[in-house]
Amino acid sequence: MKASQFLISTLKEAPADAEVVSHQLMTRAGMIKKLGAGIYNYMPMGLRVVRKVEAIVREEMNRAGAVELTMPVVQPAELWQETGRFDKMGPEMMRIRDRHGRDFVIQPTSEEVVTDIARQELRSYKQLPKNLYQIQTKFRDERRPRFGLMRGREFVMKDAYSFDRDQTSAKASYQVMAAAYRRIFDRFGLTYRAVAADSGAIGGDLSEEFQVIAATGEDAIVYCPNSDYAANIEKAEALAPTQSRPAASQPLTQVPTPSKTACADVAILLGVPLQQTVKSIVLATDQLNEQGEIVKSQVWLLLLRGDHEMNEIKVAKVPGLDQGFRFASTAEIVEHFGCEPGYLGPLTLQKPVKLVVDREVAVLADWICGANVVDLHTTGVNWGRDLPEPELVMDLRNVVAGDKSPDGQGELAIERGIEVGHVFYLGTKYSKAMNATFLAEDGKPAFFEMGCYGIGITRLPAAAIEQNHDERGIIWPDAIAPFTVVLCPITPDRFPAVKEAAEALYAQLLAEGIDVMLDDRGERPGAMFADWELIGVPHRITIGDRGLKEGVVEYQHRRDTTATKIATTDVLAHLKGQLGV
Amino acid sequence: MKASQFLISTLKEAPADAEVVSHQLMTRAGMIKKLGAGIYNYMPMGLRVVRKVEAIVREEMNRAGAVELTMPVVQPAELWQETGRFDKMGPEMMRIRDRHGRDFVIQPTSEEVVTDIARQELRSYKQLPKNLYQIQTKFRDERRPRFGLMRGREFVMKDAYSFDRDQTSAKASYQVMAAAYRRIFDRFGLTYRAVAADSGAIGGDLSEEFQVIAATGEDAIVYCPNSDYAANIEKAEALAPTQSRPAASQPLTQVPTPSKTACADVAILLGVPLQQTVKSIVLATDQLNEQGEIVKSQVWLLLLRGDHEMNEIKVAKVPGLDQGFRFASTAEIVEHFGCEPGYLGPLTLQKPVKLVVDREVAVLADWICGANVVDLHTTGVNWGRDLPEPELVMDLRNVVAGDKSPDGQGELAIERGIEVGHVFYLGTKYSKAMNATFLAEDGKPAFFEMGCYGIGITRLPAAAIEQNHDERGIIWPDAIAPFTVVLCPITPDRFPAVKEAAEALYAQLLAEGIDVMLDDRGERPGAMFADWELIGVPHRITIGDRGLKEGVVEYQHRRDTTATKIATTDVLAHLKGQLGV
């Protein structure tokens, strides 16, 4: 491609609403152009990246035996009503009515439609397993779209759905996809982790997220540097403490802690380690009647160490909290604790609550908690002496760096990531809801065992940039760069030899199948280099008159700080070496 | 691809709602699957065809210097309000509101968005000409979606938009696209015509439709078998008659024609040629005030020969009718003619009307028309004698087969076609409405001269089938077949040599880059052949045990009535010859 035939449009300044670096750089590099909140034009430069991502995904999905189809963007509501998701899904799902008043949705995913296809087309166990996928536009009406392609409203997703005859086969299909995803992410040339994720009500370990590692990532990833263990923070287990509880050594004492509502402040005031303090989190569950009205509520008290954070996914697995819970209202808190939030604790309650204790709290002695009186905390609290031994002791917290790895291979570390892929074993959730069956080997109808597998096609470039950029702009991995090589002739209008050499090299690289851009715009060298550093083409060849007279051109990788002189006769071989082709 | 890894799903019967052969065959061949009215899943077999169409279009668009981008499916209403199309477009345009109550449209085309991009990105004449295109999902909420992919609601279109500095350059850009379209349609391997189409208010000849010829086509195409002349029926000019008007030879006579309201019936009753009769068509135009209320109406009488059809596009160019017209109401007709429709004519009016006469009527003598009395016609009517010489004489009719070709190269013929592409010079319609300017060479802002260029990507396969099918199914041209070659081993489970030979040939063809399908499903030969004839793969190789023992396999093109024996050693060479590679 020659620049004069293309559309190159770079900006010095990022738009004011671009909060993250990928959004800033994609806009400045002319890759995307905002049309509305969370809605972007993929400009020619950006579309090239998206197409390369798509091509890699498609190749590996096909290699893994998946079959591509396309399901409509606009889908009739009926199927979504079968699974109940038409009503259950929030306003993120865009609903429309056609001219005849029929309801439709703009697809946020396609479980319903693909299950409808399967129940009609996959009639016999002989046709299984089958994995159907599409690379298609999706829409989610995010309340607050932001971060450019990271959390847009209209986006492209690769969504695949596997159909199997039984759990064993479904798990094998899942593993085929998990392996394909590793090949896909390897080919992208990004640093990533496949992390265990929560599999919700289904249980088991068949849920993995593919996280591109980036300091700016929204997700916390837990991993063990000595092993393969990796999980997202929701999923990562905090092992039961191995130490036993020390004996009580302090008397129960009430100490004034004026205006100190946070454990950290209390610890500083009292000169004790934060690990000695305990925070109280008050939840509530509601019992509803058939009309959906609250008949009865139950208040729960969760105790966690002051330095730990509650993990909602784990809390949602506590017996009694697993049907949904909410934070208690101030009125409920006052009713049960006789005190407003900030100084709460498990001692001296007004009304009984259900107590759930994190494993680490259960092994504390002489701990500190609120006294249920404003500006007052209690120190020297001890299980068995000051309150009964805890009955419900569970893992309620997020792991922290330094915790033991669940696989026993060392200590956990935490880094940030951007979720770009997800493989998930669905079981029969959708096939049962939609009565999707096939004839099993025994001649009887059986429900499909399903899995679903997503990759955020248009999110991936943003994640790649969050991971790979510097102050000058984007640094693309070769595999998904808009162009692999850019040729920069210096003032070719003044030096016919430069123009000629650039055109000749361009033709030569094209003939070798190298994705090359010739910048024939005639820009000043500084502006030209700045453009290509912003756009992030990984390999640059600069052709100047002085160099040509010496028989050299200059090669510079986007990550190099200086250029290397290469004999004009060696350029192709050098480039091929750099590209690994 | 092996059939066992793919999704093949053929049906014996077409669905009841499939009115046209392409809809029937695409459904039966498992290429599309209806999800709702006018909304289809592109099943794996159909998607392969769509992808091949896309690839050819993309290659030729790129070759012609166009640059690909993608504009969102969901577009904010604001831009559509700038051109007034948000209100002007009917219910075909799907409108939605997001969770914040903002209006959006699902794109039916993208003139507004691309013009918005141009006015921001193309700032100088130095960046022009530029042609931006996308291959993207569109939605039109047709009142009565039907004919499968021929008139669906959700479909994929390639839409390109050119931006030029002046008319000369815009016309050159138009010609580049018109030439690219010829290459594209040549590559599809279909019989087509590029026909001149009406260019609406803009005038000039820069509007061509690309019509795939098919007996079932919705459009009438006029062409000259001796030349390149081709136009759609709306556009094709009926040349002025060369004969002069004969002298009057009959007296004006009123003849009873009880219950004969159609010219054809009158001609039969009176034993005269239909060409001697004249039909009266009564139109009306309205003058509106600022409130949009009708202030005054004018009634028009159009006279056409009894054997001719009125052409509404031509009528809309008559001075005075060019701002819109309607058919007159019965009340208006009775008021002016003193008679209800069926026996109308230009003589003895109650109130004056504006008269417009087709060129062929102007040269008639002794003609027949209604007498403005029920059950009565007038014969022997003559211009100048019975009524004044006509003042407004124009081409008002559709041409008919046998008319002289406008290029003087012989007589016109008419055939049917399916419009699959359109190239159109837009001028400054959108750039003026959206104030889209660039800095011209003289330093002043100038409006972009635009063109737009569409190809119905998902309509093309349907048109190809309307043109290429027989009683057994589809017959794909090589370029867009879902698979180019199918290998059909006969009972490979019983004959290991057959299975082995089929696998070996499959591997060999794959290695040659031939898009080959190996049917390894183990179906009975009859069912297997029926499937592939229905699906329409153009080249079939049958591998049987008996043949192998003789050292041959059988080759059959989908259009062949019998198979040809080919030595196993010659198969590749034979196939390459057939494929022209």
What's the layout of helices and strands?
The structure is a homodimer of 581-residue chains.
Chain A: H1 21-28, E1 32-36, E2 39-42, H2 44-63, E3 67-68, E4 74-76, H3 77-82, H4 85-88, E5 95-97, E6 103-106, H5 111-121, E7 130-139, E8 154-164, H6 167-188, E9 192-196, E10 207-213, E11 219-223, E12 230-232, E13 253-256, H7 263-270, E14 278-288, E15 294-305, H8 312-315, E16 326-327, H9 330-337, E17 354-358, H10 359-362, E18 367-373, E19 376-381, E20 393-394, E21 413-427, H11 429-433, E22 437-439, E23 445-447, E24 449-456, H12 459-467, E25 469-470, E26 473-474, E27 485-489, H13 496-511, E28 516-518, H14 525-535, E29 539-543, H15 545-550, E30 552-557, E31 564-567, H16 571-579
Parallel strand pairs in A: 3-7, 15-17, 17-20, 27-28, 27-29
Antiparallel strand pairs in A: 1-2, 4-6, 5-6, 7-8, 8-24, 9-10, 10-21, 11-12, 11-21, 13-19, 14-15, 14-16, 18-19, 21-24, 22-23, 25-26, 29-30, 30-31
Helix pairs in contact in A: 1-12, 2-6
